[in-house]
Amino acid sequence: MKMKRLGLIVAMLVIASFLFLYPLNYYISKPGGAYDLAPIVEVVGGDQDDEGTFSLMTIAITKATPFSYALSKFSDRMKVLPINKVRREGENEKEYNIRQLKMMSDSQFNAITVAFEKAGIPVDVRYDGVFVVRVLPEGAADGKLEAGDKIRKIDGSPLNEQGQFASLIATKKIGDIVDLTVEREGDTIEVPIQLAELPNSNGRPGLGIEFQEDRELKTDPEVKFQTAEIGGPSAGLMFTLEIMDQLLDEDLTRGYNIAGTGEMLPDGTVGRIGGADFKVMAADKQGIEIFFAPDDELTDEIKKLNPGIMSNYEEAVKAGEKIGTKMKIVPVKTVDDALNYLRQLEEK
């Protein structure tokens, strides 16, 4: 009898482990949180005595299990995402996380440059090596470079000009060995790599990596971020507004608790992001009063390829109506739209 009971307990534990722990080839997204930007963004010596707040919004994305997958079918606050909607083809978990952090870094760069331009303060931009986003399987750099590496030099030549990396590689032939000076997790290492033919390139030599030219930004006053492990580009608009709020001798918040989402593009346009609906739900729960949503324009071609697709603003409004929020949802195409809206508000 005791053996039967023990066997039943073991079977139940195995079933529970499968239901709650077994990873499926899907992700689950759900509302995250609202994070006051004052402790996260610091313009050194900037204005810090405003009454209201600017907050960035997050969504939570986790690997689906059989239990969470089933539960999502009965919840408006959970959404199943196929793996190809989260990770790029061939991209592993580490490369995905590094790409997300890189997009966060780029959003901060754009936020600073746009904010300083709006405030009439010059910035100093310099090219600063090549950031490895992904190493292609069986490429020349496979097993030698890693996602997150920064290539500082090729054959002793520092990479500090736009397009320099591609130009130097273009002078080489398949089979040539290039000596790379690479920064990895704070250490500098030397990595020799024999160039190989790139896939579908008609004989063009390369390292077999996806990369971005990195840039170094110097400002006066200095801007510091404390974003920890938050990734993605969607905080760009709110970073820009928070930086401007600290740069300028005025309270852009007008005393309100304000949140929003949207990528900040170099020209000040607010770009489309994912999860606008869940961010509205999270903002409402956190007592946000005003929410900025990208009013992105969808072409006929995009609508044809994605039937039923809505702009971020339309998604946000629909989510707000569903939960009965009293929060004001404001459409913005550019950072100027957000600034104009804020500057016509009466102080709270």
TrEMBL record:
The keyword Protease applies. One of its GO terms (biological process) is proteolysis. InterPro entries: Lon_proteolytic, Lon_Prtase, PDZ, PDZ_sf, Ribosomal_Su5_D2-typ_SF, Ribsml_uS5_D2-typ_fold_subgr. SUPFAM superfamilies: PDZ domain-like, Ribosomal protein S5 domain 2-like. Keywords: Hydrolase, Protease, Serine protease. It is an enzyme of class 3 (hydrolase). It catalyses: Hydrolysis of proteins in presence of ATP. GO terms for molecular function: peptidase activity. Residues 229-345 form the Lon proteolytic domain. Its EC number is 3.4.21.53. Residues 120-186 form the PDZ domain. NCBIfam families: SepM_fam_S16 (NF041438). PANTHER family: ATP DEPENDENT LON PROTEASE FAMILY MEMBER. This is endopeptidase La. It comes from Sporosarcina contaminans. The lineage of its organism: Bacteria, Bacillati, Bacillota, Bacilli, Bacillales.
